TrEMBL record:
This is ABC-2 type transport system permease protein. The keyword Ribonucleoprotein does not apply. The keyword Transmembrane helix applies. InterPro entries: DUF5687.
Length: 491
C-alpha cells in the first residue's frame, strides 16, 4: 500500500500545472543541498583537527563526546524552523477500505527521509571511524553510531511532534524555541553550566559501557510512537476541528484586544494567522533571535552612535520589516472575501498598526537589558521604537498597496521565495535610509544629540497624526484594490 501512496504522490506532482516551476526549484535546491553536504563532509573529515585546536588540553575522544549534545540542541532548533512536515492528502482515502494504521504509518515513516537526518552522519561518522574505531575498537564505535542514530530519530520526531501540536496551539512553538534559546544562552553567555560537560557525562560512559547506546535509540522509538498516536487520533477532519475549538478561544475572548472593538477582533484574527502558519510564524520567531543583535555591535567600541541607531531600529522593528514587507500577501488567498465583506479598510489598517505597536513594544521591553552598555543606548532604542511605530509602520503599509504577489500559507518557510518582488527591494531603502537623512547632517557636525531629538519629534508627530495617515492609506488602497486582487488571483 505504501508503494501505491508513493505512486499517487508522484502522479499528483507531475500532473500539477506548476510542475515546471517545481522541478526548477527542486534542481536548485538539490544543487544547494549537495554543496552544503560537501562542506559538512569536509568539516567531518577534519573534525579531529578542529577539536584539537578548540580543546587543546582535552583528549580528542573526550572533546568529541562533549560536542554531541550541543550539536543536537542546535539541530532541534534548526529543525523547528526549517524542517517540513511530511504530508499526504488523506481525504480521498478515508472512505476506502484502507486501515488507518497504514495511512498513519506512511506519514510517520516518510518523515525519516529528510536531509536533516543525514547531517549528523556526514559530520560525525568520519571521526567515529577514523579516531574512535581506531583507538577504542569496533564495539565502542558501533555504540556511538547507535547513539547518534537514536538522537537523530529523537530530534526528527520531536520536531515534527512540536510543529504538529503548534498547528493547534501556536504558543507551544514559541515556548519551545524560547526554552532552547535560554538553554544555550545560559551556557555560552551566562556560563551557568557547561553543556560540554553534561554531554560528556553520558557519551563518555559509552567508552566503558557501550550498551548505554540503547537509551537514545529507545527514546527515538518512543518519540516515533508518540507521533504515530497523535497522527492516528487526528486523522479525521472532525477530530482536528474539535481540537481546534478547545485549543483556541474566539478573538473576542482576548481581554487586551476587547477594548479595541472591531479593530481588536481583526488584530486577534491576524495573530492567529501568524501562530497557525509556518511562514508568518517564522517572522515572529526571527524577532526573538534578533534580540541578541546588539551583542555584536555594543561589545565592539569601533561601532559609533550611528550604528546604534541602526541596531535600535532593527531590534525594535524587525517584525515590522520582516512581516510587513509582505503585508496583504498574507491574506492573498482570501483577499476577494475581504473586498466584498463589511470590513472597513480603515479598521483593517488600524488593526495592522495595533499589531505592529504591540509587538514592537514587547521587542523594546526585551531590549531594555542593553542599558548595561549605557543609558544612551536605552534612549536610542526608545527613540527608534517610536520611529518604528510612527513612521516605518506607515511606510510599510504604503508599499503594501503596491504589493500584488500572493503567498500560499500552506507552504513552508524554508527556501520559500513566494511573494518576493520589486516591492520588497524598494521598501528596504526608505526603512533603512530615512532615519539617517534627518540624523546624518547633525552627526557630521558633532551634534548627534540634536539629530536624535529631531528623530523623536518626527516620530511623535507621526504617531499623533496617525488618523490622517490612515485616511491617506485608505484612499490609496481604494485606487489600487482591484490591481491587488488581480495579482493575488494569479497563482
Amino acid at each position: 500500500m505504501i508503494t501505491t501512496f508513493i505512486k499517487h504522490e508522484l502522479k499528483a506532482f507531475w500532473r500539477s500545472k506548476n510542475t515546471g516551476k517545481s522541478v526548477a526549484i527542486r534542481i536548485v535546491m538539490a544543487i544547494l543541498i549537495l554543496y552544503l553536504f560537501i562542506n559538512v563532509l569536509v568539516a567531518g573529515i577534519f573534525l579531529d583537527l578542529a577539536l584539537d585546536k578548540i580543546f587543546p588540553d582535552d583528549d580528542l575522544v573526550k572533546s568529541f563526546c562533549g560536542i554531541i549534545l550541543i550539536y543536537f540542541l542546535f539541530d532541534l532548533l534548526m529543525r523547528l524552523q526549517l524542517q517540513e512536515l511530511p504530508t499526504l492528502r488523506v481525504q480521498p482515502y478515508l472512505h476506502l477500505p484502507i486501515k488507518r494504521n497504514t495511512l498513519v504509518r506512511y506519514l510517520a515513516i516518510t518523515a525519516v527521509f529528510s536531509v536533516f537526518n543525514l547531517w549528523p552522519f556526514v559530520l560525525f561518522m568520519p571521526f567515529v571511524f577514523k579516531v574512535v574505531a581506531a583507538d577504542l575498537g569496533a564495539i565502542v564505535a558501533l555504540a556511538f553510531v547507535l547513539a547518534i542514530t537514536g538522537l537523530t530519530i529523537l530530534n526528527n520526531y520531536l520536531a515534527l511532534y512540536i510543529k504538529r501540536r503548534s498547528n493547534l496551539n501556536g504558543w507551544l512553538f514559541l515556548i519551545v524555541a524560547a526554552v532552547l534559546i535560554l538553554i544555550t544562552t545560559a551556557d555560552f553567555k551566562w556560563h551557568l553550566y557547561s553543556l560540554h560537560n553534561i554531554s560528556y557525562l553520558f557519551f563518555g560512559r559509552l567508552l566503558h559501557t557501550p550498551a548505554l547506546a540503547i537509551i537514545p535509540l529507545a527514546l527515538g522509538l518512543v518519540m516515533y510512537y508518540f507521533n504515530f498516536l497523535y497522527l492516528k487520533q487526528n486523522l479525521y477532519l472532525e477530530e482536528l476541528t474539535a481540537h481546534k475549538v478547545k485549543s483556541y478561544k474566539s478573538s473576542t475572548d482576548i481581554p487586551f484586544l476587547n477594548r479595541f472593538g472591531r479593530v481588536g477582533d481583526l488584530a486577534a484574527n491576524e495573530i492567529k494567522l501568524m501562530l497557525r502558519n509556518k511562514r508568518p510564524r517564522s517572522a515572529l520567531i526571527m524577532g526573538l533571535f534578533f534580540m541578541f543583535y546588539g551583542l555584536i555591535f555594543y561589545t565592539n567600541a569601533a561601532y559609533g552612535e550611528g550604528f546604534k541607531i541602526f541596531v535600535g531600529m532593527f531590534m525594535t522593528g524587525i517584525f515590522i520589516i520582516s512581516y510587513g514587507q509582505f503585508m496583504f500577501s498574507w491574506q492573498g488567498s482570501h483577499f476577494d472575501g475581504l473586498l466584498v465583506s463589511k470590513i472597513s479598510y480603515s479598521d483593517f489598517v488600524k488593526a495592522k498598526y495595533l499589531i505592529f505597536t504591540v509587538i514592537s513594544t514587547i521587542a523594546f521591553l526585551l531590549t531594555t537589558p542593553y542599558v548595561y552598555f549605557g543609558w544612551k543606548v536605552l534612549l536610542i532604542h526608545f527613540i527608534m521604537y517610536l520611529w518604528n511605530i510612527g513612521i516605518n509602520t506607515t511606510i510599510v503599509l504604503f508599499f503594501a498597496n503596491r504589493n500584488f504577489k500572493r503567498i500560499d500559507l500552506s507552504k513552508g518557510a524554508s527556501f520559500n521565495w513566494e511573494g518576493v518582488g520589486a516591492t520588497q527591494l524598494l521598501i528596504s531603502f526608505p526603512l533603512l535610509i530615512t532615519p539617517y537623512i534627518f540624523y546624518g547632517p547633525f552627526a557630521i557636525f558633532k551634534h548627534g544629540d540634536i539629530g536624535l531629538a529631531i528623530l523623536a519629534i518626527i516620530a511623535v508627530i507621526f504617531i499623533l497624526t496617525r488618523n490622517y495617515w490612515i485616511k491617506q492609506l485608505e484612499a490609496d488602497f481604494y485606487s489600487k484594490r482591484y490591481q491587488i486582487a488581480q495579482g493575488f488571483r494569479n497563482k
